[in-house]
Write a structure and sequence with these properties.
Strand content of chain B: over 45%
Shape of chain B: globular
Number of helices of chain B: 0
Distance between the termini of chain A: 37 Å
Shape of chain A: globular
Largest interface: A-B, 20 and 22 residues
Strand order of the largest sheet of chain A: 1-9-8-3-4
Number of helices of chain A: 0
Largest sheet of chain B: 6 strands, mixed
Radius of gyration of chain A: 13 Å
Oligomer: heterodimer
Number of strands of chain B: 10
Order of helices and strands of chain B: EEEEEEEEEE
Strand content of chain A: over 45%
Chain lengths: ~110, ~110
């Protein structure tokens, strides 16, 4: 699976949009971009995934560049409950295990 | 529908004892995964079950670790002769399998070996 690079930490004001970047320059054609988050003392939570097109669900939006070498997770109106470590992961369509990197620690300030 | 459940939620044991951790996946999910997360660290893959195929045990750290799965339901992770370095949160996840990659995680079992 392709490796991803994320900033170690970020912060965002409550009510503003949080934009979390991820680089995956070695991604191949059959690999998906997945985002999970882990709130303190809980198991990882699935957020969203995509292949080529931008995706949106009730939690977030995922913007994937045309060359697929990077993506941005957008939390449109961040709240204090969005404080967590966010993991960007690239997974082959036939993959099994997830290789988690160190993620981005997002802090939401009141 | 219910998510992935794990039991016990917390386990304290003495060094040298055996422990069994249980995972109930989401109904209908054919794939099941075990991960370990040490304090302040990322997730480490342990083992993966997919239907009736032979499990991928490539992440098991030693022969003290083993896991079983009954059909496409419950799985147990067993750690024999526990050591202090086994202290961690053990997370289970399940997915539809056969290309359904979205893994849904349980709350984990916090294991403390004294």
């Amino acid at each position: 699976d392709a490796k991803t690079t994320q900033p170690t930490s970020m912060d965002c004001a409550e009510g503003r949009a949080a934009n979390l970047p991820c680089n995956h320059s070695t991604i191949s054609g059959n690999e998906y971009v997945y985002w999970y988050r882990q709130i303190h003392s809980q198991g990882p939570q699935y957020i969203i995934h995509g292949l080529k097109n931008n995706e949106t669900n009730e939690m977030a939006s995922l913007i994937i560049t045309e060359d697929r070498k990077s993506s941005t997770l957008i939390l449109p109106h961040a709240t204090l409950r969005d404080t967590a470590v966010y993991y960007c992961i690239v997974i082959r369509s036939s993959a099994s295990k997830i290789i988690f990197g160190s993620g981005t620690r997002l802090s939401i300030r009141p | 529908g219910a998510g992935v459940s794990q039991s016990p939620s917390n386990k304290v044991t003495e060094k040298g004892k055996d422990v069994e951790l249980r995972c109930d996946p989401i109904s209908g999910h054919t794939a099941l995964y075990w991960y370990r997360q040490r304090l302040g660290q990322g997730l480490e893959f342990l083992i993966y079950f997919q239907g009736n195929s032979a499990p991928d045990k490539s992440g098991l750290p030693s022969d003290r670790f083993s896991a079983e799965r009954t059909g496409e339901s419950v799985s147990t992770l067993t750690i024999q002769r526990t050591q202090q370095e086994d202290s961690a949160v053990y997370l289970c996840a399940s997915s539809l399998g056969f290309g359904g990659e979205t893994q849904y995680f349980g709350p984990g079992t916090r294991l403390l070996v004294l």
